[in-house]
Fold this sequence. Notes:
The chain has 221 residues and is of the alpha+beta class. The protein has helices at 5-8, 97-108, 113-119, 124-143, 185-193, 210-217, and strands at 2-3, 13-20, 24-30, 45-59, 62-74, 81-83, 150-159, 163-170, 175-181, 203-205. The protein has three domains: 1-88, no CATH class; 95-144; 150-217. The strands form two sheets. Strands 1, 2, 3, 4, 5 and 6 form a six-stranded mixed sheet that branches. A four-stranded mixed sheet has the order 9-8-7-10, with helices on one face.
Amino acid sequence: MSHAGTILGISELEVERIDRQDDIKVYARPTTRPRCIHCRHRRVKIKATYQRTLKHTRQGNQLLTLYLKTPKYYCPQCHRYFRHPFQGIRPRYRSTEAFRLEVFEAHEGGVSQRKLSQTHDSSPATVERWYQGFLAQRLSELSSRRCPQILGIDEHFFTRKRGYATTLVDLKNHKVFDVVPGRSEASLRRYLQRLPGREKVRVIVMDLSETYRSIAEDPER
């Protein structure tokens, strides 16, 4: 038996066997017994075990399917039941987070829904649903980011149709924070007024643009 962390990228799993035919079938089980998810009691009891079947990834031209032994636990302290929680695997889903992310990134990179439905054994509607789900998740993550404390601001030409854009850079971590269409004071103020943590900015690096200087001196105006 080998640890699944090096094979599947999922911690606290142990591989029992691997079958390689047309596709790859990996049979695994958890190596640890969790605390009760309701009351955090340590000594839970296994009352039953069932198998979960999940698409996990592609290796070459083969689809890797994961067959998980999933215990159902009983807590003697709070008298409640729960199923084993797996990292990277949501309850009642038939694919892992890694598999859906793989499909999303392939589709974002230009692979068609029809092609992905063939290579990943998922319908075009499912591919679209996963893609939209990840887009919504990323949008939520972007909208909740806090403004960097050391902020760089500069303008650049974007497209002939859209004109200029303003790039905001997190200079402490040396990466682009966001790109905002436009360079006018009105458009930038609307964006900055909705940006969490803008009041904690300590340093702003910019050129001599009157617009940027005005916003930096009075971001709330």
